[in-house]
Structures are given as C-alpha cells and as structure tokens.
Amino acid sequence: MAYPELQPLSPALQSLQMSLKEQGVKYAMASFVDIHGMCKGKVVPMEHFDRMMQGSELFTGAALDGVPQEINDDEVGTMPDPDSATVLPWNSEIVWFASDLHLVGQPFEACCRTILKNVLKQAADMGYGFNLGIETEFFILKDTETGFGPVSDRDTLPKAAYALPTVLDNYKILDRIVSAMNGLGWDVYSFDHEDAQGQFETDFTYCDALKMADRLTFFRFMVKELAREAGYFASFMPKPYADQTGSGAHYNMSLADLKTGKNLFEDPGDSCGLSKLGYQFIAGVLKHAKAIVSVTCPTVNSYKRLVRKGSMSGFTWAPVYVCYGNNNRTNMLRIPMGGGRVECRAADISTNLYLGAAMILAAGLEGIRDGLDPGKPHTENMYTYSLDELRAMGIETLPKTLGDAIAAFAADPLSKEVMGPLMYKTYVDFKTQEWEDYHCHVSDWEIQRYLKFF
Predict the structure, then answer these.
(1) What is the band of 1 on the pLDDT scale with cuts at 50, 70, 90?
(2) If you count DSSP H runs as helices and E runs as strands, how many of each does the chain have, helices first?
C-alpha cells in the first residue's frame, strides 16, 4: 500500500512545532477515540512531528472496540488537528492532538470525530454554527477494604449536594483539576459537590461542538490521571451507587449565525426566552429522543440513572419522559432561565460526545427543516403524573434499558443517516452484544435473593 510522499510542513505547522519545542515538549500524542469515546493513539518524538501531522501513525482497527475493521484490512491512520494541540497539564513534555481517522488517504467513514464533522457541515450549509456546553459530573473515590468510597470521611450526608466541608476536604485534587482546565483556557466559572457522596461537577464556558467534544474527551483522560497521581481514582460510570444519584453530562445547546455569531435561539419576547428556531430544534430532538438516548446514555448502567426515584434525596433528577419545559428539571429538554439555549438532561458522563452531539444536532436540524412544533412547554413537576395520565397527554417514556434504546436506535432512519452504514451496523451489533453479555452475568442481587431461597 502506497502512502503519499512526505511534504514540507506549512508555515503554520512549522511555527507550531517550533513553539512546542521551545516550551520543552518532547513527544506528541496522535489521539483518536474508540466507540466508547476513550482515547487511543501513539506517542511520537517531536523530531518526527512532520510525519505524524501527515498521517504516518497507523492502527489496526480490529484491535479496538467499535473501530469496524477486519484483521486483514488496511490500517487506519490518524490525521491530527493542529488546532487541538493540548500540552498535558501533568506532564509538560507531551502534547496531545485530537485526530480524525483516515483510510488509504481518505476520511474513514466510521471515525467518530468525522461523523460529528459531517453533521456540523450540514448545519454550516444551513448557515448555522452549533455551540455546546457540557456539565461534567464525576466521582473522585478511593479504594477501601470493602470496595470503594469517597475521599473524605465526612462525606456521609444523605443529601450531599453543595456541601462545603467536603469540597474543602477534596480541595487539593479539585484545585488541581480546575487549575489545569483554566490553564488550558477553558474558563471554569464554578465547581461544587454534587448530590451523591464523592460526586463533583465542574462548569466551564461553552464553545463550538467539535472543540467541546475534544475537550470532554481530554477532560476524562486528564481527570483520571490527576486523580491517580493523588492516590485516588476518578469514575465516569453513570451510576456507581444504587441508592444515590448518577452523573449526568447535560448538553447545553444553541445555534449561532455563522456570519455574525448571533445566538439564534434567543428571543427576549418569548415567555421562555426561546426563538421559533429553538422550538423547532426541540421538536426534532423529541421526535428522535429514543434513538438519541442510546448514544447519550450508552451503557447498561446508564439506565439505572434514568429512573423516577431511587436516590437517597428522593427523585433522581434524571429525565424519564420525552417532553420539554421551561426552567424545570423534570423534563428531558429544559429551557434554562433567561432562554437562549436548550439543555438536554438525558445524557450521562459516559457519553461519546462526538456521536451524541452528531445525533442530537441532526435531529434538531430536521426539526428546523421540517418546521416541526413541539407543542406547549411543561412547567409542572412531570414526576407527579401517573403513566396513564402521561399516556393521555401523548407523552412517551424514554427507554428503560440499553436493549430498548438500541432497538429504538436501530429502528430510527436518522441513526443510519448520521452514523453511515458501517458505524450504524457496528453500533447496533456492539451494543446488542453488550446487552446480551449483561444478561449472561449472575449478579450479587440474584445470589442473595435466590441462592438459598429455592
């Protein structure tokens, strides 16, 4: 297989190489993600930076989860995005690059990052940019003799949200994380202890969706490393405790005019502060909600979070129904106070944001193209309705299991349109197998309930 001859670096890339060397960078990471959104890649000495930036690093897709290749296929190669260059805050000798996958010199159709870029181009063709903010919820925990638990011995409250003493007990690791984020220019504007023990959230400024997907991918990579350095571990499992709340990754979304940058979801004259375009976007997302959830909530464990009750603080704060409303956290889609954006609460921190953002944006664009109407917003507590009452209102329930979600994904034409035939089949097959593997597992609950009962 012949690859293009090495070309001289452009002046911009030469400048980047020189700048990185002057900062003391010795190695570059050409990184991409598997189906889980987890970082994979190779490490290249800066002396071979020119080769790496032209796709020299090759990978056998068959060795990875959800990179659909056979063992005998040509390798995929990474094409790093120079705009994503990120010097590791915990090791300034290494720079990380988010990369697209290519196959024999062409974009690889099942590359997660490329899938998002394809949908972003559809938005751009309509004159829109897609701005995205993610609320990052996660756990900082330590290993114990009985399993795992929070770092602080004071982190025992049944309603742990916003507890300042336990924030201070975790100050060193939280400051390390937030300082690293701000050092990268992400502009953290708050962080706090969340509802579960050992659970925290960082909130930082939104940006365009591709950059945000790169940032969330790097964030999970970084927080794991920083927690490990401190002697702890970070968990992005959606719901590690059965009796406490899980970790969301709420998508905060708006469309902007590509020419002016104006927020096209803003309308001060509307009761919710949202424009007609924003309502049409909501309608498209609601239409495809069940398929979207299979990607924004991609694990067996995700659906332990999407329940009405079960946490120590009462309601789970996670959405259960396909509906939207104003500044009301009991809807799947929420229009926060002041309007101008739409928050999807049906996403958890295990999401592969490249794929999740692609699905939700494509659905929203369909709503705009077709002029869909989401109906009136719900301002009431949706948890208080019975299922019969909800059915009478025409409100459907989100999938209750990964199996239900994958069935919805497989049945929705939007899924194949967004993912392409190869990733569509790969996602359905991989997640169906994950669901079947889960059902073959005998859990502690079953042993405790049945072993000596029968």
Answers:
(1) very low
(2) 14, 20
Helices (H), 137-206: 164-169, 171-183
Classify residue 429 by its DSSP letter. Answer: H
State the sign of the Cα–Cα–Cα–Cα dihedral 262, 277, 356, 110. Answer: negative
d(CA 279, CA 276): 5
DSSP state of 64: S
Tokens 């079953």 appear where? 446
Q: Are 80 and 99 in contact (CB under 8 A)?
A: yes
End-to-end CA gap in the chain: 62
Which phi and psi (to 5°) does residue 116 adopt?
Answer: -65, -45
- List, for residues 92-113, the tens digit of each pLDDT value: 999 999 999 999 989 999 999 9
Q: How far apart are CA 209 and CA 132, in angstroms?
A: 5
Tens-digit pLDDT profile for residues 230-239: 999 999 999 9
Residue the block writes with tokens 């997907």:
213
Note the pLDDT tens digit of each residue in 392-424: 999 999 999 999 999 999 999 999 999 999 999
Distance of alpha carbon 331 from alpha carbon 68, whole angstroms: 36
CA 184 – CA 421 distance, rounded (Å): 37
Residue 257: strand pairing partners: 128
Show Cβ contacts of residue 132 under 8 Å, excluding neighbours closer than 6 positions. 206, 207, 208, 209, 212, 213, 251, 252, 253, 357
CB within 8 Å of 359: residues ≥ 6 apart: 288, 291, 292, 295, 296, 414, 415, 418
**Which ranges in 267-334 belong to alpha helices (H)?**
276-287, 289-296, 302-305
Work out the pLDDT band at 316, boundaries 50, 70, 90: low
**Cα torsion at 273, 278, 282, 288 (round to 10°)?**
-170
SS3 of residue 448 by DSSP = helix
Residue 142 burial by Cβ neighbours in a 10 Å radius (0-12, 13-18, 19+)? middle
Helices (H), 370-453: 387-392, 402-411, 413-440, 444-450
